[in-house]
Amino acid sequence: MIKRYALGTALALIVSATAAQASGEVNVYTYRETKLVQPLFDAFTKESGIKVNVISASSGLEQRIKTEGANSPADVLLTVDLGRIDDAVKAEITQPIKSEVIDKNVPAQYRDPDGNWTGISMRARVIYASRDRVKQDAITYEELADPKWKGKICIRSGQHIYNNGLFAAYVTKHGEAKAEEWLRGVKANLAQKPSGGDREQARDVAAGKCDIGIGNTYYWALMMNSDPDKKPWAEATKVILPTFAGGGTHVNLSGVLLAKHAPNKANAMKLIDWLAGEQAQKIYADTNYEYPIRAGVDVNPTIAGYGKLNADPMPIAKIATNRKAASTLVDKVGFDN
Description:
- With 337 residues, the chain is an alpha/beta fold.
- Helix content is 45%, strand content 16%.
- Strands 1, 2, 3, 4, 5, 6, 7, 8, 9 and 10 form a ten-stranded mixed beta sheet that branches.
């Protein structure tokens, strides 16, 4: 009996130790608003037993991790836009993500060839068009420079990361010379000096200041479904999914990076893999109104109402190489002046 009791106790201790090792914690630095990502972390903790500690900020997280160096508590950087992703890689604060789960579920065009990052959800840069004044339901990005739109376009700063991504995609698609010509054409068509955020472009279309505004897909859904004060702006507009001539709609990413000195690397990888899983992808779709990056997960009905997304096949990593060129062109043509 004594031996059986001792064996049973030993087994219990092993099980207990294994459970403790399987739980623990993971430290996430994020540019996402806490209220948007907390449902993800709560679900992950419920399933895995791993506690998620979150530090959220609107800027400077790459520099913070770099400054913290080998003592950084950061395990994961959860970010938005290829600009933030590229900044993190250039700051040398990442290590390669090696995961069969990611390789299987995230298309190659939305992963870094060197494994420094992976996309986990998508958003598209689209048109908020006046329901009353814009009759067409299709438009190309190239067409934004057509003189027929003179005085009819609203947009936020050309240097904002969302527009920088679109402009970098244009450079990648057509080259710098044609991109400069295009930006001059778009600038000539602006109804007013670039200002505000994406929501304000819908506001100004609704007010009749312009006929089309440029914004991300999810802002329109948030205005329509989650913000009664701004719902009239959405109701006055319709979303058009523009495309490049001969291509598809420009998409950008929410991405995740594994921190260079991650103290909880095993748990960090569990979180990264989980974010590409069906449950997390559904939360991204229905809570954040983003496009799932994993095939087979339904798009939120409001987003589906825009029409079928035909994402441009251009690799995000390739677009990132032209961010600086796009920024330089914005200044060269005086886009924001």
